[in-house]
Design a protein that fits this description.
about 400 residues, mainly alpha, Growth Hormone, Chain: A, 15 helices, cell membrane, transmembrane helix, membrane
């Protein structure tokens, strides 16, 4: 419940920040650059974060990261309220938020299993996705209305205050922490190398992470493309931007609800492959439309496949990974899922600046589709070349 309250505030800040930057600069490229800066720490530090997270109680780490996020949101609200906000200030705050989230995201992923155990893990991840996407429906709608009536500063202020709920919720949770035993004379680089070697030797983990890399880079650039699409293609304002983001949330919420009912069967690798392909196809369709209604419907369906892909990928990695490697596997998941966002946001912003939002949607969708089909073909070919004896040994 605390997370649900906080995430509504987070989505209010997300759309408020995007619209603020677009208003300050008028440049899709500079908007994409903010996304690049915000997710750059994931790219640079995720591997180190996994080693650190393994060695400390995860609840304690989350209390620190959530408190930092609250402070940064309140700082941004103060800058906007006092009319002293500048693009450079937003960039610095985005960088600090990205640094905080580099430790927060993999910690939350690894903390799930400490709370519920392996048997209920996929159901917990699906319910967490429902919470996230319920907030994605409510947050943009409330945030867009608030921006239109009162300005974006109130989005940032309410987001800052909303962290009180999640911090209180964390304080009430009692979990059995898993802290990996410290090994003597093993440096950070060797621990990172050990985790990478483990992933490379496991075909399930390797294929899943490769798919997450492609989809995370090319398919999840909505924060950059939807505001530009709303303003330049549909010729509409804040309310339509919030409505389109809410459509994405409605579809995602439906996908998360479906996954919660199917969770007892465990993660399905086929759904990872199918949803990645269909997600790419619907990005192409969004690029072809100039109708708000069709765009909203396509975004809703995109949201469904978004959650099918993310939930099954996340569950597969957590359940399949050994306990002593789980935090490192999830830190690499954070690296390829969120750490690839700087590249994706930069590419999407550049493409939107040069070819327009419609062209950027089509370019991202087309490349994503091609690469996903290539990965599927590569692993099927590799599987068909394994001899019965090798298959038995791998099993």
């Amino acid at each position: 419940m605390g997370q649900c309250v906080s995430l509504v505030g987070t989505w209010m800040q997300n759309i408020g920040q995007a619209w603020l930057v677009l208003t300050l600069t008028g440049s899709p490229f500079l908007l994409g650059l903010i996304g690049t800066i915000q997710f750059l720490p994931f790219t640079c530090l995720s591997l180190f974060a996994g080693v650190v997270i393994d060695k400390f109680p995860k609840k304690r780490i989350l209390l620190v990261t959530q408190s930092m996020s609250m402070l940064l949101a309140l700082t941004l609200s103060a800058l906007v309220f006092t009319d002293t906000v500048r693009y450079g200030y937003v960039m610095v705050l985005a960088l600090l938020l990205g640094l905080t989230n580099t430790f927060d995201m993999p910690t939350r992923q690894a903390f799930n299993i400490e709370i519920v155990g392996k048997d209920d893990l996929m159901n917990a991840i699906a319910l967490n996705s429902m919470t996230f996407n319920l907030a994605r429906i409510l947050g943009p709608a409330i945030g867009a209305t608030m921006m239109a009536l009162l300005g974006p500063a109130w989005c940032f202020l309410l987001n800052g205050l909303s962290f009180i709920a999640v911090i209180y919720g964390l304080l009430q949770i009692e979990a059995v922490p898993y802290v990996r035993e410290k090994k003597q004379n093993i440096g950070v680089w060797n621990e990172i190398k050990d985790g990478l070697v483990y992933i490379r030797g496991d075909q399930v983990l390797l294929q899943t992470l490769m798919m997450v890399t492609v989809v995370g880079t090319l398919a999840y650039n909505f924060a950059v493309l939807i505001p530009v699409f709303t303003k330049d293609v549909l010729m509409m304002k804040e309310q339509m931007y919030g409505l389109l983001m809410s459509c994405l949330g409605v579809g995602s919420f439906g996908g998360a609800l479906a996954m919660s009912f199917m969770s007892k069967k465990g993660p399905r690798r086929k759904l990872i492959l199918i949803s990645s392909v269909l997600l790419s196809v619907f990005l192409l369709l969004i690029g072809l439309t100039h109708s708000p209604l069709i765009a909203g419907l396509c975004l809703a369906v995109t949201g469904v496949f978004n959650i099918l892909f993310a939930t099954n990928s996340n569950s597969t990695l957590q359940i399949h990974a050994k306990d002593e490697y789980r935090a490192r596997v999830m830190s690499i998941y954070s690296l390829v899922f969120a750490g690839s966002t700087p590249i994706g946001n930069f590419f999407a912003g550049y493409a939107a600046d040069r070819y327009g939002a419609s062209g950027a949607f089509m370019l991202c969708g087309g490349i994503c589709l091609t690469l996903c089909l290539g990965i599927i073909w590569m692993f099927r070919r590799k599987a068909s070349s394994v001899t019965p004896g090798e298959a038995l040994q791998q099993k």
